[in-house]
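Saturday, quiet lab. Running sequence design on the structure tokens for the scaffold JK sent over.
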């Protein structure tokens, strides 16, 4: 039998119908944003052990997690054929036999995320599937190329078929407290994206403090980003639960004050099914069920899908399969 949770996963990914228009920079609000580091770390430390789902319910949550994955390849040796194989995996992330055993309809991942050079290849491979292509942009991962080139890169990716642009902010603006410069930069990126949705990568491992993470989150949302994202995946510290808690609560605060829902994307270091369950439970508790959907929540990951597949196979057969049976491409 299908649980309600399982039934809700059987859909194609979608982008949010309502964009974040942004607002004027409110420096009083930004300066008032604080982060009680010890309290945040205590709360985060309790998360892995506080919520446990088993059997059909666990399988349902794992299927939900798959629909929220931005299946990603950002390697220097990426080839067109590797990207095509990844797109094939995005179209059919779970073996049909497993879905049939769980009485589930086909599902897909949330998006495929690539470098600019591979956008056209990915867009062609995903044509007609409803799966968007996300392109990392603006001098990813450091964000230190000339500003006019970062804007031009966004435009080129949109022309090539990217429906989502993952931009990287200039960390120096955060570290120096130049919130106006960060706002102006983010606003320019948002305008360059046009109809493409924009995800602001904060590179939280390089921002120095949780307070800076909170303030940078607010500034990027005020400037009109549709998602805030933790990391490029290239920093020494990527997505963590304390950082996620700070960013999620900034999203909640922004929604309370403006009525606009902004998405959240943890990225980097999330490779186990059990980690996905913790993040989903955190989202449900802090933001509510509306965010348990790919138009407002994404995992930036690749190896995560393989581990989820192994857990689903164990759910169906009672035995774990070898990792090579669930290759990404």
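Result came back. Writing it out in full:
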């Amino acid at each position: 039998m299908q649980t309600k949770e399982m039934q809700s996963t059987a859909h194609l990914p979608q982008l949010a119908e309502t964009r974040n228009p942004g607002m004027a920079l409110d420096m009083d609000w930004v300066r008032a944003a604080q982060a009680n580091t010890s309290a945040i770390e205590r709360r985060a430390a309790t998360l892995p052990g506080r919520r446990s789902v088993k059997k059909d319910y666990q399988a349902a949550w794992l299927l939900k997690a798959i629909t929220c994955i931005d299946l990603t390849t950002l390697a220097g040796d990426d080839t067109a054929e590797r990207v095509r194989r990844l797109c094939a995996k995005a179209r059919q992330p779970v073996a049909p036999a497993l879905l049939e055993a769980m009485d589930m309809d086909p599902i897909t991942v949330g998006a495929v995320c690539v470098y600019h050079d591979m956008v056209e290849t990915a867009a062609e491979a995903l044509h007609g599937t409803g799966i968007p292509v996300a392109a990392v942009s603006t001098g990813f991962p450091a964000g230190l190329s000339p500003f006019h080139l970062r804007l031009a890169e966004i435009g080129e990716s949109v022309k090539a078929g990217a429906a989502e642009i993952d931009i990287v902010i200039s960390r120096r603006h955060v570290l120096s407290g130049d919130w106006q410069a960060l706002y102006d930069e983010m606003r320019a990126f948002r305008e360059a994206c046009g109809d493409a949705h924009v995800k602001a990568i904060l590179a939280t491992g390089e921002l120095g403090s949780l307070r800076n993470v909170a303030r940078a989150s607010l500034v990027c949302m005020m400037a009109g980003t549709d998602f805030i994202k933790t990391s490029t995946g290239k920093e020494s510290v990527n997505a963590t639960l304390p950082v996620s808690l700070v960013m999620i609560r900034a999203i909640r605060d922004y929604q309370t004050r403006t009525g606009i829902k902004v998405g959240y994307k943890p990225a980097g270091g999330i490779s186990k099914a059990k980690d996905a369950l913790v993040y989903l439970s955190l989202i449900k508790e802090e933001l509510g069920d509306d965010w348990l959907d790919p138009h407002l929540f994404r995992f930036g990951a690749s190896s995560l899908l393989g581990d989820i597949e192994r857990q689903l196979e164990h759910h169906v057969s009672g035995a774990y399969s070898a990792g090579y049976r669930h290759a990404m491409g």
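Notes for JK: Residues 1-11 have pLDDT under 50 and may be disordered. The domain at 4-326 is CATH 3.20.20.70 (TIM Barrel). Ask whether to fix the surface positions before the next round.
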